[in-house]
Specification:
By secondary structure, the protein is mainly α. The chain has twelve helices and three strands; from the N terminus they run H-E-E-H-E-H-H-H-H-H-H-H-H-H-H.
């Protein structure tokens, strides 16, 4: 796509879904390019979808350049955070990438090692710390295809993280992931481990958002327990999680 390299900050957010992209392309075909593609230090920092549409439509792209003292990460967040409609897993993946992003980000000291703490990245994207940690698992230990499935919203990070723990080999992950979300769920159900909690029961049930709320509730409850009784509290949690108690 184009003669420009992609700036790391641009990859915080996923590419548009096919439906959203086709809508953008149709609008640009009718009304032209209304918003410039943004460059920073000779790299594309915002407007990947607009540039793709320009190239496919044969439109000469309009470009603008950020000033050298502008933080490209802050710019990308400002331009995309509220206009993009993302699922919880997608937001968690964005937050995870932001938490690990230092390359290409200027700081007052002149170094490029700025990394946003996980808690701050989670708060910025409105997701729980647990979801961001699961997304980091996916980015670190998951195959490329699995990460892309989480970024697109096809697979929740809770499911992907559990799948990775059971299937550590990335080549095996990729082979299974080629069959889509259904193949991942089927592979996990065939294992000896109980995985029902990780399996997404439907498109309308946001596993990761519910998981975040459950973690927050557990932390709140555990804060009420005296230190000397925390072992007992964890015992009951384990008993419930392993389904030794049945309703």
């Amino acid at each position: 796509m184009s003669k420009y390299d992609i700036h790391p900050a641009a990859n915080i957010f996923p590419m548009m879904s096919d439906a959203a992209y086709q809508s953008l392309k149709a609008d640009m075909e009718k009304n032209g390019q209304c918003e410039a593609v943004v460059l920073y230090d000779g790299k594309l920092v915002d407007g990947r979808n607009r540039l793709r549409a320009c190239e496919e439509l044969g439109i000469e792209p309009l470009y603008s350049e950020l000033e050298p003292d502008v933080d490209p990460v802050a710019f990308v967040l400002s331009a995309n955070l509220h206009r993009r409609q993302l699922k919880t897993s997608q937001k968690a993946m964005c937050a995870a990438k932001l938490a690990g992003l230092g390359e290409g980000r200027p700081s007052k000291t002149g170094s490029n090692d700025t990394v946003l703490p996980i808690d701050e990245a989670a708060k910025l994207f409105g997701v729980g710390r647990a979801s961001v940690c699961r997304a980091l698992d996916v980015l670190r230990d998951g195959c490329k295809q699995l990460a892309e499935m989480c970024e697109s919203g096809e697979v929740p990070v809770s499911l992907a993280s559990t799948f990775i723990k059971e299937t550590a080999d990335k080549k095996t992950q990729g082979r299974i992931a080629k069959g889509g979300k259904a193949a991942i769920v089927a592979d996990m159900k065939s294992s000896d481990e109980p995985v029902e909690a990780a399996v997404d029961p439907g498109e309308d049930f946001d596993v990761d958002a519910r998981g975040d709320r459950l973690c927050d509730w557990l932390r709140h409850e555990l804060d009420q327990w005296p230190q000397e009784h925390l072992g007992e509290a964890l015992h009951w949690i384990v008993q419930i999680a392993t389904k030794e108690f049945k309703a």
